[in-house]
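The passage that follows is intended for readers who have already worked through the single-chain material. We present the inputs for a multi-component assembly, then the predicted structure in tokenized form, and finally a short commentary. You are encouraged to pause after the input and sketch how you expect the pieces to fit together before reading on.
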Amino acid sequence: MTTELEQPDPRVRRLKGVVIRFAGDSGDGMQLTGDRFGAQAAEAGNDVATLPDFPAEIRAPAGTVGGVSSYQLHVADHDITTPGDQPDVLVAMNPAALKATLKDLRPGGVLIVDSGAFNVRALEKAGYDSDPLTDGSLSNYILHAVDLTGLAVGATEGLGLKRKDAARTKNMFALGLVSWMFNQPIESTVAYLEKRFAKKPPEILAGNLASLRAGVDYGDTTEAFAVSYEVKPAPLPPGTYRHMRGNRAIAFGLVAAAHQAGMPLFLGAYPITPATDVLHELSKLISHDVRSYQAEDEIAAIGAAIGGAFAGMLAVTVTSGPGMALKSEAIGLAISLELPLVIVNVQRGGPSTGLPTKTEQSDLLQSLYGRHGEAPLPVLAAQSPADCFNAAFEAAQIALERRTPVILLSDSYIANGSEPWKVPDVSELPDLGIEFATEPNGVGKDGKPAFHPYKRDPRTLARPLAIPGTPGLEHRIGGLEKADGSGEISHDADNHDLMVRTRQNKVDGIEVPPLEVDDPSGPPGFGSKLLVIGWGSTYGPIGAACRLVRQQGLAIAQAHLRYLNPLPANLASILAAYDTVLVPEMNLGQLGGLLRMHCQIEPVGYTQTRGLPFRAVELAAVFTRLVNDLEDGAAALSTEDIKAIGGTGKVGRSELGSEKNK
Amino acid sequence: MPYVVTSPCIDVKDGACLDECPVDAIYEGARKLYINPNECTECGACASACPIGAIMLDLEVPKPERPFVKTDKEFFSKALPGRDEPLGDPGGAKAAGKIGVDTPFVAEFQAAE
Amino acid sequence: MTSADAGGKQLTAKDFSAGEARWCPGCGDHAILNNMRNLMPTLGIPRENFVVISGIGCSSRLPYYLDTYGMHSIHGRAPSIATGVSINRPDLSVWVVTGDGDALSIGGNHLIHALRRNVNLKILLFNNQIYGLTKGQFSPATKPGTITPSSPFGSLDHSFNPLALALGAEASFVARTVDTDRKHMMEILAAAAAHNGSALVEIRQNCPTFNHGERAVTADTSVPTPADGPIRLEAGSPILFGADSQWAVLRDAETGDLKLGRSTEKGVVVHNPRSTSPTYAYALARIADTEPELAPIGVYRAVERPSFDNQYQDRLADARAGGRGDLQDLLTGNDSWTVPARS
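Having made your guess, compare it with the prediction:
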């Protein structure tokens, strides 16, 4: 492909970046199609960010708007952080998919529809009164009505496929066509399909490959697609890269941590969307001494993990919001036992079942405070799909070093999203090994040497761990309060007060890297007047929006929190250096409230809980307005102002424990 | 750490403890009751039932009463006067019936005035 | 086989003792603890390889008094925590200590799933038919109609039959013993320890404070009375009881149900805990429903079924047969690409 670049084909138009969305029925294979397109683009050296979006039901009623499944990709020749706001290209496999997603397509964008799926019945199901392909309502777009189903069936003729199975290869036809449009080689997809369908009847593979190739050929030979596009490879730093999804990155981060600690990895889990993929990934890795165990419920899952930790494993449990609620009593036990444990919460829309397949950041305060008693634990959040690897590795590192449960927050957006990930060199990963106790460290009441499980390391306040099977160190731990040092049951008031404070000090004492501010206009207090601070998956949209603001010649500062507990020591002083601190969040202002409490500042929130990530252009509009207001000497953005500039979120003080919106 | 019946029981044998022992481990000699140290589960029901405070954990027995720790043990481990075999661990006092004799120590015991 | 310390010294009950138990005087828990202390040194397992995990309740204090590795966890969850220990560490002997409230009420789900999986746990279910620690409310094992502080007009709950429940959950070893019979309990606990897979032992016990058993006295000699008990189950022997073995467990020729009757009648049952079908053990367990004071004691069922632990460890061993997977290979995968250094 690079050689072709040097001798450009006149029919090829180069793009800096493009946003493509595949949309269809949840049975149409849109996730696979999008995933393969992203993988092809990443292998071709593009930077790729993806956003799958699928219905909560496994099979919502076919052909309805509620059953539409889509997959959006942002492919660019430069470092990108979001899957894009508005698609430039939309592939709609049926009327319902068109109905559900057309509003997002950029005016003038390319629209490819499967005309074979536009029959009267399908139009009616999708709620169309007239056929949009013929009624002129799509005149704002470059419309390609292609009988994808019919062409796919034709391409597979003679291979022995049943009509239904032949029609199902239409997604591969669409992938072939779009791959041609963007000059992407399909070889890796061919290899992928060969593996995926290896155990199926041979005609299934043959049919899918035939449709894929027919799609490419169709683009090449059809006058309608006179011009194809090409996105140049992004200038990534040198290294080995891989297309990585957030949930897989978490699994890999944990496996790497166990490897570096020299311990087996033990996962206790119960299936829950959108965390289940971590269970799936880890279940495959048995040859890496990963022991995965599917328990009878969320409580048993963390129970088994606690048992595994006591037995000397690097123990992990993965879940989402409702599962976290069920685990909270056991998390309290793990805090009391002071055992290493990584708890992964892949957040979704709540409360209750909420929006199980949609993203949200609304479990921050649950993670920090959602337990009985004074129950502090470290909390950190991953900021992008590839970052999930490092975040999971660090969570395990803290858990092992401090002998504490650690909560790692991800969310549905980065769990299912993907981006190029620079594969780490294993020889450069830090050693996480800890020493288990093998000798008594105290003297018992009988004057003999004894093991005192709560005799702490004076620096880290971590307690010694003696695992069962170690002779002479037999001891009991449990949820009842223990005497400092000896670990005997203690109901003593002073001892309890000491232990409560010690557990808090242990977590507070974790060394967290200082918060860094990205502001080309100057250091805190000397550059921008506005600081935008976020946590977790908003990193991408906030960063993209800041870049858009800076492209207009305006100054804006960005900071992002990985550690939510403890917070970086320099946080308050950094925030105090700005006139206005804006906190965009996919909740009602949980971080905003936290900052007010910890830093005695009055941040401005920009919040939404719409199940989808922030759009960069929307954030950029809000940021721009605020920067301009600050230059004018006032920052009084109202909800009406937000509406006027096309925003969908709410602005104002954190809505938690505070007056309502200004 | 079984419970032990000490000197106040001698010639009193109130017997309140007999009904309380959940494992029937208290045996009746001629002058005193004896707790089988192997059958005792240390539950303490006997101690709280005893109206004269004669029963206590072996570790808590005061020095002057220490010989009773040994004599309760020997009541079962050594052949009693007039018998060829030690009593052993019969596994229940009711089935064993009244033993009717004491250890030589108890038989000759004189309470200090 | 017995346990010895590193210096070869024979361990005794004293070596397994960790402090004075704090249960009410007369509580059956004392007897169980005492028997555990005496049993453990005789099992040939090093002391450091015992792990005793409990939930919440009076019974669940037991690990604190045994000088082994132990954990006093949270209400009802001990089987799940013990599972995490046991499946990862086949070298350990893992025991669960639980009560009728802990195991049958709040922890019912974990109990049935541990038994279903046949995790290699020795589960001791202390059944005093009452919530003791919270001062005497009715439990799932309490007889209906029992007056307690939370059921001042009598409890309405139908009670669980713990053994029938365990058998329904496909337990491979199910037994009952009583706190007052030291010899019997020791035999049953030893049999449970020797079983590969889940072993559920119900230990019927007295709560002297909140559920002091008052035995019904009847002069009627045409039916067996509690005084004729207990009914002892011995593998291979007819199930006879009463001072003169005048009573027996009989099989009703028409219904196949088990009932109590005179040993001279037809259909005296010969006990077979290894019957492949659980139906017999289930019928035996149901006798406790109609004759609670005569609930048979002994091993109801003991069958071989692959333990979860063994299968789990076998699978791990198979997967690592060719050595542990290479982490760098895993991370790099076969779909990576290289961005060369720009010159």
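Commentary: The radius of gyration of chain C is 23 Å. Chain C touches chain A through 60 residues (CB under 8 Å). How closely did your sketch match?
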